[in-house]
Amino acid sequence: MPIPDFHALMYPLLQLADHGEPLRLRDSYAPLADAFALSPQERHQLSPSGQQYLFNNRVTWAASYLRKAGLLESCGRGLVAITPQGYITLREVRHIDMAYLMGFESFREFRRRTGSSAPRPRSLEMSESFEEVPDCLTPLESMEVSWRAIRADLEFDLIERMQQIHPARFEQLVIDVLMTMGYGCGESAGQSGDGGIDGIINEDPLGLETIYLQAKRWVNPVGRPDIQKFSGALSGKRARKGVFITTSQFTREAQEYVTALETRIILIDGPQLARLMIDHNVGVSTVDRFEIKRLDSDYFLEE
């Protein structure tokens, strides 16, 4: 039979996770292939890039979408576990599709971050999970839509991973990002952090201007009281600049509060931090490149 698309794989994958123990994703490939009676040739059919098996790639995307809807959660490298909502889903439905996933706010937020509500193309290997591209889009537009969706997926994965690491490791990650952006040397305050200061970084190579950091690996939103504490810590240092970075988000009150301060405090939430990591190649690696070329008319000019 044809290799199933990611829609068909989501429900049986969720069923596999329903055994009380974390599921190693690679251990799901064989039982899922058996469930769909795939031939050896279908199991080992390569993706267009030739770098991985097509079926395994689609299982990975099915797991990714289930995580974004909150039906699965990551619990380690290559490991997923069913969530309470996942158990509810198995009791309530017998099929999972995009319409069902759109019933969850976390999944709708992921779709919004792709920058387009249009259906997704299947023209690229890493976009195997997306629906057919509408005919109104050019091939170049289709690639752009895929690129945005792939990037949004990576942003989600980065935020999820950052929320799992040790707070001290997260503080160092923040410093790594800022240093990669071109700021001078920096260091984490660690357990010796003074009054809400988690790290410092030099704005220039000579260290004439110091930026103080607070890095919070939180899930709940950061509110105004947290920013007030950080502002007080900056005042104690007679600092003029600070950056508050979190894996979650800032409340509206927190955002409005920083605009009224004399001390300049920059707020960076989880999605913004993930985008900076991607743009500056921190915690990510390139898996493929696509060059788009056009005809060089000048080359064919005759003298």
Automatic annotation (TrEMBL):
Signal peptide: none annotated. One of its GO terms (molecular function) is restriction endodeoxyribonuclease activity. Residues 163-277 form the Restriction endonuclease type IV Mrr domain. PANTHER family: MRR RESTRICTION SYSTEM PROTEIN (PTHR30015), TYPE IV METHYL-DIRECTED RESTRICTION ENZYME ECOKMRR (PTHR30015:SF7). Residues 6-91 form the Restriction system protein Mrr-like N-terminal domain. InterPro entries: Mrr-like_N_dom, Restrct_endonuc-II-like, Restrct_endonuc_IV_Mrr, tRNA_endonuc-like_dom_sf, Type_IV_Methyl-Rstrct_Enzyme. Gene3D superfamilies: 3.40.1350.10. One of its GO terms (biological process) is DNA restriction-modification system. This is Restriction endonuclease. Pfam families: Mrr_cat (PF04471), Mrr_N (PF14338).
